[in-house]
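User: New here, please read:
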Amino acid sequence: MGDPAGIGPEVAAKAWHSFGGRIGRRRLKLVGNPEIFRAHGEFPEDAFWPADSAARSGSPARSIIAAIETAVQAALSGEGAAVVTSPIHKARLLDAGFPFAGHTEYLAELTGAPRAVMMLAGANLRVVPLTIHIPLADVPAAISESAIVETAEIVLGSLARDFRVAQPRLAIAGLNPHAGESGKLGEEEQQIIAPAIETLRARGHLILGPLPGDTMFHESARAQYDAALCMYHDQALIPLKTLAFWEGVNVTLGLPIIRTSPDHGTAFDIAGRGIADPRSMIAAIRLAADMADARNI
């Protein structure tokens, strides 16, 4: 459901109807308050997995959290093959005492995953930000050799398992302009990023980098790798959203379940007007089903 005041219920409802309630052999279930979804179309009674009824009658923040928990529990138990989440408004949840920066961090907590990794996937590009929802000023201190190695191996494993890439290739971006210009524009590449890359190569992985962020996303450069690991949020998301704004999908790697979501926000300014574009939600459902097929779920 996502935030009921945003476009999440609308794009979920539109996607459900676009698929006719099924994708392949799997039925699609709308998770949350059925009445919120019914504001955007007619559905049979069995189209829903209602979230906790007590939470539904409480605060909007609690109803959002209850829908996430219900969907995750269904996936953990095997009742569901994957979870596709609608957008949430982080500030609303934080103001209500939610102790996580977003879906990714909360899903790691709910599933017991030691490290959850956010990937944004489009038809022509897959990107992963090493650091996610933190201020830009805090990024250099948050980068470490171990974080790069652990994140890279989660991404490479998922490329092989979930995306069926036989020999996955990972490009790793530098942090500074020109990837540090041999230490003249910053030392993180030489002190942290390059050693992590050498560790990964020693383990047999195909790695490019550290690459300058301003030259690694043009068409011929993208042909050299299957995913890009970037150092901070906008370094990864700007190229992805430029190339695939309406079809981009947010995928959480490193979890014991499959989770995807549309790559857009709550769009409060157009909520309730019936004009929200469901293409990213449709793409998120398709990718979740493809990943479930790859895992034989």
The mean pLDDT is 94.
